[in-house]
Amino acid sequence: MGKNLRWPDFIIGGAPKCGTSSLYFWLSAHPEICGSKLKETFFFADEVNRFNQQANIIEKPIEEYCRYFTHCPAHTKAFEATAHYLYYDNARIMLKDLPTKPKMIFIFREPAAQMYSHYRMVRYRIKTYQGTFKDYVDNKDTWFYIEYAKYLKPWLKEWGADRIKVLLFEELMSSKEKTMCDIAEFLEVDPAFFKSFDFEHRNETVAIKSSFLHKLGLRLQPLIGHRLQKLLLPLYLKINSSDLKGKTDEERQSLQSFKPVSERITRELQELLPELDLSYWDKR
Question: Is 242 a residue whose pLDDT tops 50?
Answer without folding.
Answer: no
